[in-house]
Design brief:
The protein has one helix and no strands. It is rod-shaped and about 135 Å long. The chain has one domain. By secondary structure, it is mainly α.
């Protein structure tokens, strides 16, 4: 082979290697992008689950607070009525 042919062969090899490197870099970029998307979906799913749990707890807490307030008011009314009854019967 003459020198020109050797240079052309070597340039072809370099071009092939650059093409292969470019393809590998694109595949790595695609894989990384897919992993990022998968991670984002996983995190969003967990955040949505946590938000739903917090909403449920808040609703349960409101219900419990209302029940406690109602029970406290009822108990207070019974105690007040009992005190008035005791006063009434004690004064007789």
């Amino acid at each position: 082979m003459n020198d020109d042919t050797q240079v052309l062969v070597q340039l072809s090899q370099v071009q092939g290697q650059l093409t292969a490197l470019t393809q590998l870099m694109q595949q790595n970029h695609d894989s990384t992008h897919q992993r990022i998307n998968d991670f984002r979906h996983a995190v969003e799913g967990r955040i949505g689950g946590v938000e739903a749990r917090v909403d449920k707890i808040e609703n349960n807490e409101r219900g419990t607070a209302l029940k406690a307030a109602g029970g406290g008011a009822f108990s207070g009314a019974i105690v007040a009525a009992a005190m008035e009854a005791l006063k009434f019967f004690a004064s007789r």
